[in-house]
Amino acid sequence: MRHLELFLVLLSVFTKASSSDREKADIERKLIKHVKEPYRTEILEDFFTRKTGEVSSNPDDVRFCLYTNPYDSDDFYELRYKDLNSVKNAPIIPQAPWKVLIHGFTQSQNSSMPGVIKNAYLEAMSKGGDTQVNVLVVDWGKLAYSSQDVLIPIYTAAVRNVEPAGNRTGEMIQFLLENGAVASISKVHIVGFSLGAHVAGNAGNYLKSQGLSLGRISGLDPAGPLFYANIPNFNGRQLTHEDAVDVDIYHTSWGSYGIAENIGDADFHPNPGFNPLLQTQPSCLNLVKTKMLLQVCSHNMAPVFYAVSILYPEIYGCSNFAILRTCDKTGQFGEFWNSNSTGNFYLDIPSSGLLLLKHL
């Protein structure tokens, strides 16, 4: 019951408060089933105990997993690049938009990202109505981590793999488009987290080289380390606002794990704080309970915020940080961002409401 009360504090920030106990119970059920369950805190200890073999640089190791069943979040179909039969037999929803989800460093298909966002889309679909999407999870896990126990060599290898993973993702989208699975390139929306945001940018850049303009990229706290300077053989090509028609960015650990640049058509800063050089999310301040490094936790909040925006769209940012608590809310945050709203947006989410998110 305590968790429900805390959640309702958060909900009151994001959307209109419900006056019905039945509606409140329904909201709690949905969050438990579709948002909380897949979110597992990937703590540093897990990173050092992975046993996955050496990091790959082969784009053929990138997998594409399609989810279209709103009543079973574990039910997926694997699409294979250049395998036309895999496309013909796939449970694709005709004419529906595509949501392409790309995880970050050390993650994979079954990690909290993409799980938390994939499940939010499926929950939205289960409500019926016009919400029908093809959710495609890009699993580049074999290119994103290895069993080595030294952090920097693994990360640099993953950074170098951003480009081949992105190119293969772009090739797959083009393959689906050419074979009628994707109705229009404008209906493709990539959501990438951390290094996955830069993978998304490379996918968009590849498609641009083929004369195709990707519809939208949402970058969830794009990775910062090794993307600030041009270091030969170390840094990768970063996401830019030119990689899709519309690019929206969500910063949750500005200046540490997240890039310290406004790189989108719109850049959102939830809980920006008063230190512009080091953004920290309030729910991450209790390091003992979160079992995560402070900035790792803040970085990982980006997919959680975005997942909430899919289910509860009434989240808005303010274009003026100085009057954050009193300004008109002009920029809609997350999934339902309006591309006519450009520039920088800030939103203040009370830490009391965010306490629940560590249980997601």
From TrEMBL:
It comes from the Eukaryota. Residues 1-19 form the signal peptide. Residues 55-314 form the Lipase domain. SUPFAM superfamilies: alpha/beta-Hydrolases. Its main location: secreted. GO terms for biological process: lipid catabolic process. Keywords: Secreted, Signal. It comes from Orchesella cincta (Springtail). It is found in: Secreted. GO terms for cellular component: extracellular space. This is Hepatic triacylglycerol lipase. The keyword Secreted applies. GO terms for molecular function: lipase activity; serine hydrolase activity. Belongs to the AB hydrolase superfamily. Lipase family. The keyword Phosphoprotein does not apply.
